[in-house]
Sequence to fold (299 residues):
Amino acid sequence: MTSIFDDIKRVFTQGGNAVTKLIMINVIVFVTLILLRTISYLVGYGVIYELVTINLGLPAHIMRFLFKPWTIFTYFFTHEGFLHIIFNMLNLYWFGFLVREYLGNKKVVSLYILGGLAGGILYLLFYNLVPFFEARAATAVMIGASASVLAIILAAATLLPDYTFNLILLGPVRIKYIAAFLVILSISGAVGDNAGGNIAHLGGALIGFIFIKQLQKGNDLGKPVHAVGDFFSNLAAGRPKMKATFTNPGPRTRSTTTTSGNVRPDQKEIDIILDKISESGYESLTKEEKQKLFRASQK
Fold:
């Protein structure tokens, strides 16, 4: 048991893979809720579990949400059903690793959080403005990372539309068709039993598509997420703000080298490479372009 906790601690203290960290957070929350549910019901205090879960899920009614604004974040780290979390985490693993390979850890985290926020906002808008949903808003609550995962899936499909996954029974399938199928599935379910969840899926999918299109134009929509993350990381590490004083106003040359001495490509070069991938696929890149893309992902 000790080794399990050591492994978990290592995931979060040694930097590394953002996809693994996101999956780990979701699994920890899921296991904690399972233990809480089992214990609370066994001792006759099931209300404790109900109280915790109702304060993690995103309520549909705007007035209930205003009293629990944190749920716009907590809902996309919360699952109750085994199939729900397994499906989401498998997709996060497959598509998240693909996005991470080409764009780096920060972009994966940005997509996950922005996708969840977009899904939550669209969910609230529909349940408070569309007549079909308004009648259900009083009791509806949403949990699950599906909107965040759909953002990553659409981002991968927009970035690398012809990348191929080998699916059981179907064989090789381009991820643009997988993404299109999931979007159509969400549209068809927007008036079904999981109407709110499917609306949130569409919000996540939309932000994933927009994120990559803007990134190809040189605009990183994830900058606010990075800034907040860096702030809390520095706060937790207790790092003081750095100050530098320059006394020599003479001419200077701008350095764009990494610690290993390799020249780090600028954003325009990366945009050109991303456009080439979008049009012709990753395999069309030269060795030099692949190296530039790799170095950029280490930012």
